[in-house]
Known about the structure:
Layout: H1 2-68
Amino acid sequence: MGDRYNKAMSQPGDRVLERLDKLETTLFKEFREWAISFESRFRANEVLVSGFNERMISLEERVTDLESNK
């Protein structure tokens, strides 16, 4: 009789653990998808910033050249 009682009591707990496991898996998958898209956006922005930085250096050099030619 004790075994039946333990099995009956463990079923709701097992269901809770199963739901928690599914929830953790879902959250992990969603986070992973977000992280992948974030990394992609970060790299795209990094390229833009790098290009902007190169243009700024070029403009600074041109301004320096113009100032030295006065």
